[in-house]
Specification:
- The protein has a five-stranded mixed barrel with strand order 1-2-3-4-5. Strands 7-8-6-9 form a four-stranded antiparallel β-sheet, with helices on one face.
- It has helices at residues 94-101, 128-140, 153-157; strands at 7-13, 25-32, 37-40, 55-60, 66-73, 78-84, 107-110, 118-122, 144-150.
- With 158 residues, it is an alpha+beta fold.
- A hairpin with a 4-residue loop joins β2 (25-32) and β3.
Length: 158
Amino acid sequence: MGSSVEQIKIWFRFVPREGWFPQDTEGLWATRLSEDTARVQNVPFLQDGVAEGDVIRFRTDADGLHWAAERVSTSGNCTIRVVPVPSGPLGRSPRAVQQRFAQFGLGGEVFSEDFPMVALNAPAGADFTGIKAVLDHGQEDGWWHYELGCVTDEWRKA
């Protein structure tokens, strides 16, 4: 056996939100650390309370699917979801959203062309105060709506 890093998909189950997506599960790519733990490798679009880099304990079912059981450790990263307002100054452009946060070095992923939600990963130690200011300014000016999928005490204090 080599020292290859095993990428697996961890599945999260949740109650669908009214007026949101009908999905009640989300699969996130993760790097397997042990028989029942893995580190999340992407930013969740739907699942709350988890961020990129967090370590999750999972259970594997009879079909071989890995289901999240609990968060073992936090990376200190935060998950922010931004949806551009189609009639706003940025239109439906996820790229325009990402550019507004490029100064903070935030990585992010786009949900789909039909629904241009951007899930941003705000790493521990980032300029949370600055990021919050841009989020609030953009929402007040009708650029986007945003929500916080996962935040830390560091974020709350900023």
